[in-house]
Every structure is written in C-alpha cells, then in structure tokens.
Specification:
The chain has two domains: 1-33; 36-218, no CATH class. Helices cover 48% and strands 20% of the residues. The protein has helices at residues 2-32, 38-45, 82-98, 127-132, 143-156, 180-190, 193-199, 202-212, and strands at residues 52-54, 60-62, 68-70, 75-81, 102-105, 114-120, 159-164, 168-173, 214-218.
Length: 220
Amino acid sequence: MKRSSILFTLGLVIILSSCNAQQKDNSSSRIADLLFDPKIIELIRENTPNEITRLETEITAVYDSTNSRTLQPQGIKFCVERKQFESMVFKLKDQFNSMGYKIFQMEYNYDAQCLQIGVLKTNDQFDILRSLGTNGINYGIETDSLITVLKKWNSENEFEIIAAGHDYVEARYIGKPKDFKKLSQEMFNFCPDIVYQGAETVERLEEGIEAMNGLYLWWD
C-alpha cells in the first residue's frame, strides 16, 4: 500500500512536470511567432529571470453577431519585483525605442509583489493604448477618442507614454511645459476623476503634474 502511494505520487509529479514543460514550450513558441529582436529578450533577461509571455488583450474583433476573435497585439509581458517596477522602464526605454519597441508599465496593484511590464513591437506609442483598449468609457470616452485628444496634447507638449492599463495612462513630458495651470485644467475637464477621486483640487493637480513633469489620466 505504501509502495503504491509512492508510485502514485511519483507519477503525479511526472505528469505535472510534463504539463508545465509543455506550457512553457507553448509559451516560447507563441513568443517566437512574434519575431522579436533577440536583443530585446536578452535585455529583459539581464534584468529579470521571470517568465516572458505573450501580451494578451481583452479587445475583441466582432465580425457578425455570432463570430468574434480576441485580438493579439505584437507584444510580450513579464513580471518584475516591486523595487524594479518604477526604474526598469526608464532604464530600458531609450534603447528599446531606438530598436522599434515600446516598453511600459502595465499594473498598479500595490498589493502585488510582482508587477507587470509590457513591450510592444511598434514605433507608435499610441499602439500601447490601442492594444490595451485604454478608455474612459464611464465618461463616453472610447480608445480612439482618447488617442485623438492625447495626440493633440502631444503636438503642443511632446510626451512619452510610460504606463497604461484599460482605464489609465501615464506619460512624461520630454521638455518642460510652460503652463501647467492650463494643462491641469485641460486634464481635469477631460478626466474629472483625477481630481474628484485623487488630487481633490485642480490646484493640487497642477502641483502634482509639475512635480512629475508629466500627465496622468484615470477613470474609475
């Protein structure tokens, strides 16, 4: 009886190990399909040993009332320790940009010990928002409308997107804008939640975006 139990346990371990290996092989195969520059993977590996997986999206392309498919962006994601989360994007972004890739923070779950960073194969930073379906739908703002507004702001004060999710986007200005009072009012008008559920006043929002030299939009 005891021997049978041991054999059963060993068999279970082998099966689980085989399943895990198959999952990793499938994951590696899916990433290989993206034809990412090996140097990108190498740079990530130099900074974290954690698994790299394909970036998934909740966006769905609908062809008719019965047929649809989940869109697959040309991207990957990986998890990093909290202490690396704030610094890794800034550390790698210039090199990634020069190679035709965008790296960005994906997750602001402060209860998690390991946080997600994404990489897209693109020269267009707004593809980050397209891939994640970033929106302020509670205010009737869909992804294309958000991108239209951000492109206008970018033409006035150039910025670089460093973080995004389905309901938020964060960027840093490349130069120093001259009028943060105007910018804070525009941000509040477009995204009231950053004041009503965040800064509390437009004046405090102005102080915050000037201190970070960037913009932040979040819809509850």
